[in-house]
TrEMBL record:
Gene3D superfamilies: 1.20.5.170, P-loop containing nucleotide triphosphate hydrolases
Molecular function terms from GO: GTP binding; GTPase activity; transferase activity
Protein's name in the database: LAO/AO transport system ATPase
Top-level taxon of the source organism: Bacteria
């Protein structure tokens, strides 16, 4: 679309340079606006993203993956609270933010959604999956770059399901955590093959459930890094924070700071 077409169509145009600058100052409204442009595949979004791309990267990006109901959202609320207590700012990209907000008792009024309220150090954004096969919204990677450029210290990405389709999260996150719940038995057996490749850290959540100990023994037999948590109470969260930090320290990223084992994809 040319500028003339845009004027004819009456569509609002964006000053991409101004938008990018505002994102870099951590302006929450600008962050939300840019992610919306990217979701809509608006060319202004891609243009603004390119202006951010030269910035230095410092955010630690962690993917939290697992079957629905395993406790991912509850864990993310606990992790976000723990990072905030240590003074770090947190951006969350999730398939379903409602459960993070309602389950995140510890975050309380610190949670700020989108651009409606003041930023108190936690930004939460829902990413529609839109039928994409990998379980990650197509713009999740770009949204993580935006949050990084906006200065968030930690970015947590919630993604549903484990297995082959989830390999995508490796391109987005420095560290991937797979969340499983006790009593999955057969499912755990079935996913062992592909899981370790994707997730160096396994969380056995719902550690308060009957059968947690035997599942834990089973998991520890084949994965060196299993953390037992009770997301509803916060038990095991400090250990999980430590495991994520240890993994991040021990794994190099690309020279430009982007995560993942594969070459950085071109931003179009
Ligand atoms: N008993 C127990 N319940 C939990 C635990 N973690 C999460 N839940 C509950 O399990 C349900 C699913 O949690 P949610 O975080 O929404 O799972 P998600 O679908 O993986 O994001 C909710 O009702 C949570 O309150 C836990 O450690 N113990
Ligand atoms: Mg959830």
């Amino acid at each position: 679309m040319t500028a003339l077409d845009l004027r004819r169509s009456g569509r609002e145009t964006t000053d991409v340079a101004v938008l990018a600058d505002r994102v870099k100052t951590g302006d929450v409204r600008a962050v939300s606006r840019l992610i919306t442009l990217l979701e809509n595949r608006d060319p202004d979004g891609a243009a603004a993203l390119r202006l951010l791309d030269s910035g230095s990267r410092h955010a630690d990006v962690t993917g939290i993956t697992g079957y629905p109901g395993a406790g991912k959202s509850t864990l993310i609320a606990q992790l976000a609270a723990a990072y905030r207590r240590s003074g770090r700012t947190v951006g969350v990209l999730a398939v379903d933010i409602s459960s993070i907000v309602t389950k995140g008792a510890l975050l309380g009024d610190r949670i700020r959604m989108g651009d409606h309220t003041l930023d108190h150090g936690v930004y939460i954004r829902s990413m529609a999956a839109r039928g994409h096969h990998g379980g990650l919204a197509p713009t999740t990677r770009e949204a993580a770059l935006v949050l990084d450029a906006a200065g968030y210290d930690v970015v947590l990405v919630e993604t549903v399901g484990v297995g082959q389709g989830e390999i995508e999260i490796m391109d987005v996150a420095h560290t991937v955590v797979a969340v499983v719940a006790p009593g999955l038995g057969d499912e755990v057996q079935a996913m062992k093959a592909g899981l370790l490749e994707v997730a160096p850290i396994i969380v056995l959540n719902k550690g308060d459930h009957a059968g947690a100990n035997s599942t834990l023994r089973d998991l520890r037999a084949w994965c060196p890094h299993v953390v037992r948590t009770v997301a509803t109470t916060g038990e095991g969260i400090p250990e999980l924070v430590a495991a994520i930090a240890a993994h991040r320290r021990s794994h190099k990223t690309h020279d430009d700071g982007t995560p993942g084992a594969r070459p950085k994809p071109r931003l179009v």
